[in-house]
Amino acid sequence: MIDAKTEVYGIIGHPVSHSLSPTIQNFAFCYHKINAVYLAFDVTDLESAIRGIRGLGIKGVSVTIPHKVSVIPLLDRLDELAEMTGAVNTILNKDGLLIGYNTDCLGAILAIKEKADIEGKDYVILGAGGAARAIGFGLKKEGANIIIINRTYEKGEALARALGGRSYPWDRIREISGYCLINATPIGMWPNVEQIPISREYLRNFKVVMDAVYNPLETRLLREAKRLGLVTIDGLKMLVYQGVAQFKIWTGRDAPKEEMLKVAREILG
Q1: Rounded to the nearest 5 degrees, what angle is found at the Cα of 231, between the Cα atoms of 230 and 235?
Q2: Which of 25, 61, 135, 196 places its Cα 20 to 30 Å from the Cα of 104?
Q3: Is the pLDDT of residue 259 over 90?
Q4: Residue 166: which residues within 8 A CB-CB, separation 6 or more?
């Protein structure tokens, strides 16, 4: 029941209408009988939104595309992982002090480890935004070799340097091979579900393909990879695993991970 004591949480990004985060986080609040609600806020004016979080006493928010990097100067403090990755996907409002965290890193690594090896393997990441940064730093910590391919070459090169890896311009994507390809861009995300970041013929250069996009659950990229017999990793587990970590930051409680996964799959499937 929503009343005058209900605490407000949410997700800020643009767009956010496709987001499953309200579904899984509200499920977790209900599971623990916490008087709280989690809402989606489509934000184009980030600075005003952050002032609103402070002014309205919103307890915490998730941060998604395109604000994971640009939100950093607007916060009071970063935790160690957010500082290291240079990307924030979680904000805790601690008595007016806004603290930035990164749980994408943990979510991605947990999802990858369920299906693939990491140490010593070549991981090719498409993109150089907040998701790519979090995934890249997580993989680096686990001993992977990182290759960044980004449409803006200078941005990709800067991230590759930070990761001790290599970078290539987007038009050389057909020349690149590795153990695992990760799409960390919004390409293929609802409603543009038929878009694909790399042609099917070039997927043969990899053994594992991961898509950070989770809506749709099986993107065109993953469908094409499956047809080639490759191991595929969808973005849903990354979403849920990072959401579980967010819930812990906000409430101090363990979220019902398996139940959240089940609910999310039912919604998507």
Answers
A1: 125
A2: 196
A3: yes
A4: 146, 147, 148, 160
Please write the tens of the pLDDT for every residue from 157-185.
999 999 999 999 999 999 999 999 999 99
Q: Which pLDDT band holds residue 269 (cuts at 50, 70, 90)?
A: confident
Strand pairing category for 90-94 and 60-63: antiparallel
CB 42 within 8 A of CB 13: yes
The model scores a pTM over 0.85: yes
Domains of the chain with CATH codes: 7-102+237-268 (3.40.50.10860), 105-234 (3.40.50.720)
Radius of gyration of the chain (CA): 18
Is 55 exposed, middle or buried, given 0-12, 13-18 or 19+ CB atoms closer than 10 A?
A: exposed
Q: Return the closest-CA partner of residue 91 out of 38, 138, 40, 50.
A: 50
pLDDT digits (tens, 9 = 90+) for 199-233: 999 999 999 999 999 999 999 999 999 999 999 99
Candidates 105, 76, 80; CA nearest to 93 is: 76
How far, in Å, CA of 105 to CA of 85, rounded? 8
pLDDT of residue 54: 97
Active site residue 257: no
Around Cβ 134, how many Cβ atoms within 10 Å?
Answer: 31
User: 232 vs 3, 31, 81, CA distance in Å?
Assistant: 44, 31, 27
* Helix, strand, or coil (residue 26): helix
For helices 104-113 and 236-251, angle between their N-to-C axes, nearest 10 degrees: 140
Distance CA 90, CA 9 (A): 11
